[in-house]
Amino acid sequence: MKIVKEAYVDHTQFDKKDIHFDANSKADNPKWSMVDVQYQRMVKRYIPLSELKKYHLQHRAKGGPLKDMGLFTRARLSVQPLTTEEFEFILTLEDKEPL
């Protein structure tokens, strides 16, 4: 998928009828954000988090595109940015046997 609109306040957190309502979130200090995404294509195979983590550890030790991947170096969010190099490397994994 591709991010087509950067993070903005998730309005559903304020709607008492919405499943995502959060009574602790205030309009002047919202807790939740959302992004708009656009479908691009499916990868050819499922690439589990555990496999990406193995590559990340290998790349940290020996160098490689996933050495500083935010998914493993920052607090985990539901949406993580990727560098072009990280994205292109991950796409190469779809044609490889799982690690």
TrEMBL record:
Pfam families: EVE. Gene3D superfamilies: ph1033 like domains (3.10.590.10). It comes from the Eukaryota. Residues 1-92 form the EVE domain. InterPro entries: 5hmC_binding, EVE_domain, PUA-like_sf. GO terms for cellular component: nucleus. Specifically binds 5-hydroxymethylcytosine (5hmC), suggesting that it acts as a specific reader of 5hmC. This is Thymocyte nuclear protein 1. It comes from Dissostichus eleginoides. The lineage of its organism: Eukaryota, Metazoa, Chordata, Craniata, Vertebrata.
